[in-house]
Amino acid sequence: MPHDFSDVAVKENAAELLDDALSHKRRKCMIGFGSMSDPYIPAERELCLTRRCLEVISRRGFGVSLITKSDLVLRDLDILKEVNQKTKAVVSMTLTTADDSLCKKVEPNVCPTSRRAEVLYELRDAGIPTIVWLCPILPYINDSVENLEGILSICRAAKVSGVLCFGFGMTLRDGNREYYYQKLDELFPGLSSCYAAEFGQNYSVPSPNSEELESVFSRFCKAEKIERDADKIFSFMSEIKRDKQTTLF
Q1: Is residue 89 classed as helix, strand or coil in its secondary structure?
Q2: Using an 8 Å Cβ cutoff, are 95 and 151 in contact?
Q3: How far apart are CA 165 and CA 131, in angstroms?
Q4: For the segment 118-144, what is each residue's pLDDT rounded down to a tens digit?
Q5: pLDDT at residue 117 above 70?
Q6: Is 169 helix (H, G, I), strand (E, B) or coil?
Q7: How far does Cα 196 stand from its chain's mean position?
Q8: Is the whole-model pTM more than 0.85?
Q9: Which domains does the chain have, with CATH numbers?
Q10: 104 forms bridges with which residues in the sheet?
Q11: Percentage of the chain surpassing pLDDT 90?
C-alpha cells in the first residue's frame, strides 16, 4: 500500500448506517465485529465508533459477536452485559503465546497475553461467553508443548466456551512470505534459512510438532469439556439466543 499501515479511513457515520440497516430487519440476528479488522484499534479510544455501534445493537435488540486482541473491550463491558441479558454477546480473543516477551515480538502494538488473560477473566465474571482463537502457530517459535499448555491453562481458568484451532502451523502466500522472512531475520536470526530449507515456497507451513500438539490439545478439550469443533463454535457465535442458554452445552 502507498501509505503507512497505521493510516486508516474512518467511516464516521457507521453507527447511523448500522441503525438504518437494522431498522429494516424483521428478524433479530447476531452482528459480527472483527472479521477483517480489530474493532478496538487505538483510534477507537477517541472515536468510540464501536461503542456507538454496540449501543445501536443493544437498543435494537440484536446480538453481537466480536473478535479482538485489545483490553479496550472492557470499556464497553456495560453495553456487552446489557446485550447479553437481552439476546447474546460473545467475545473472542486471540492467544498466540503464553510468554509476554515473545508476544511482544510476534504481536507488537497490542496488549500482551497476560493482559488478555485478565480481560477473559473479567468477561467470565461478567457472564459474557468467550472463545479463544489459537492461531497462528509459528514453527520453531511458539509451537512448543510448554507454550500450548500455558495458553490452555488460561482457557481453563477463564472458563472459555470454546477454542478455535485450524491446525498447528501457518500459511505463507507470495508477498507475505518475503515480509515474514524479513521479520524472522530481524527477530530470530538464522530462522529464515531454516524455513526456506524445510518449507521452500510451500503455502502450507505445518509445525514439526503438529502431532504432539494435536494430542495435547485434544486431551485438554475432552477433559475440560471445552468445545473445539469449529462448526459448532461458529454456529454458537452466529446464532442469536432464543432462550436463556448462553453456553455451547
Answers
A1: strand
A2: yes
A3: 11
A4: 999 999 999 999 999 998 999 999 999
A5: yes
A6: strand
A7: 29
A8: yes
A9: 27-168+207-238 (3.20.20.70), 170-206 (no CATH)
A10: none
A11: 88
